[in-house]
Write a structure and sequence with these properties.
Strand order of the largest sheet: 1-9-8-5-4-2-3
Number of domains: 2
Largest sheet: 7 strands, mixed
Strand content: 15-25%
Helix content: 25-40%
Number of helices: 12
CATH superfamily of the largest domain: Type I PLP-dependent aspartate aminotransferase-like (Major domain)
CATH architecture of the largest domain: 3-Layer(aba) Sandwich
CATH class of the largest domain: Alpha Beta
Number of strands: 14
Shape: globular
Structural class: alpha/beta
């Protein structure tokens, strides 16, 4: 699904030298490489504060801790996403409120958010799923109307640019009150282990979060807030520093591969290709950078999706089903409050979605082979 070795070969000399420099310096935790990466990512995102941490799940949890959310507060998020998004809500004894997604872009449905807001609602967590920016204009308007926080889950969307209805362009993760991301190796900007970061333009919130990630300390052995141990190590930071200057190129290559995939499938009525425009139709826009194609995800109609998975695997083509079970149906998150009729889109997507290989090293021969085998199965 991801050719990390091929990507590494392009930056091998810089990565190897930088890692050895960290080892020789022995500045493994909160060293100069971490601080340099923080500053470089702030500049890239045009955000005031980046706080690195140990992984993307921690980033989400710490963002919620920093906002001071209390047990029982309701947090609205999408039903169709990875479990980490709802996991941290439950861990903090907040009340997760799962809602359906839009049938075109798979991101959280705006009308579903409106219907889920109650006096106990304190926050909305939009997920920029598969790398496509959610409808942040509508989400921020709802948040302002109801005095809610917006916590962006940008684990799959790093580098995407959202264009607001008034023409302002902003990197995803830097739009809401606070954003989070993951640097898991398979991400568009991934390290060689675990890593994550929190973003905000709020000075006070940033100060709080900096204490939380380091055991609640601002001064050594003075614990001013309840914190956790969640720090990005210097070796991972130096890998990320090597990759960050290439991120836009990586994302452009993904977009080009997505365009070629979609062209190959364009004549098949049973294959719905992903939209490349936030909140729009099934096209990949040449001028819009709102999709960075962390995944290239098809919807297959009138087709045995699981049979297609087996068919591709039989030809040594990796593929993924993201996600096979809705969060509201997962054993850990089942709740009598949920009504199956409220999850019609998600319940359909989990039966029909399939993701194809997507990375910076895909070439035309590979794309032709993959698409040919898909079309061989899907009538």
């Amino acid at each position: 699904m991801v050719d990390l070795k091929g990507q590494y070969e392009q930056i091998k000399e810089q990565v190897n030298t930088s890692i050895l420099n960290v080892i020789e310096s022995t500045a493994f935790i909160n060293g100069p490489e971490v601080h340099a990466f923080q500053a470089e990512l702030e500049a890239y995102l045009a955000v005031k504060h980046v706080i690195p941490c140990a992984n993307g799940t921690d980033a989400l949890q710490i963002a919620m801790m920093g906002l001071g959310l209390k047990p029982g507060d309701e947090v609205i998020t999408a039903d169709f996403t990875f479990a980490a998004t709802v996991e941290v809500i439950a861990l903090l004894q907040l009340t997760p409120v799962l809602v359906d997604v839009d049938p075109v872009n798979f991101n959280i449905d705006i009308e579903a958010i409106k219907n889920a807001i109650t006096p106990r609602t304190k926050a909305i967590v939009p997920v920029h799923l598969f790398g496509l920016a959610a409808n942040m204009d509508a989400i921020m308007e709802l948040a302002a109307e109801h005095n809610l926080y917006v916590i962006e889950d940008n684990a799959q969307g790093i580098g995407a640019t959202y264009t607001s209805k008034n023409g302002v362009k902003t990197k995803t993760g830097a739009i809401g009150h606070v954003g989070s991301t993951s640097f898991f190796p398979s991400k568009n900007l991934g390290c060689y282990g675990d890593g994550g970061a929190i973003f905000t333009n709020d000075d006070d919130l940033a100060h709080t979060i900096r204490g939380i990630v380091n055991h609640g300390m601002y001064k050594r052995y003075h614990h001013d807030v309840v914190g956790v141990n969640s720090r990005l190590d210097s070796i991972q930071a130096t890998v990320l520093r090597a990759k960050l200057p290439h991120l836009d190129t990586y994302n452009s290559k993904r977009k080009e591969a997505a365009r070629k995939y979609s062209k190959a499938f364009s004549e098949n009525k049973n294959i719905i290709t992903p939209t490349g425009v936030c909140n729009s139709g099934n096209t990949i826009c040449d001028t819009c950078d709102c999709h960075v194609f962390h995944q290239y995800t098809l919807v297959v109609k009138n087709t045995d999706r699981d049979g297609l998975v087996q068919h591709l695997q039989a030809h040594d083509i990796p593929c993924g089903v993201y996600y096979p079970i809705p969060l509201h149906a997962q054993k850990a998150y089942k709740d009598a409050r949920y009504n199956e009729a409220d999850f019609t889109v998600t319940n359909q997507l989990v039966q029909e979605c399939i993701s194809l290989p997507m990375h910076t090293e895909l070439d035309d021969e590979q794309i032709a082979f993959i698409t040919g085998k898909v079309l061989e199965f899907v009538g």
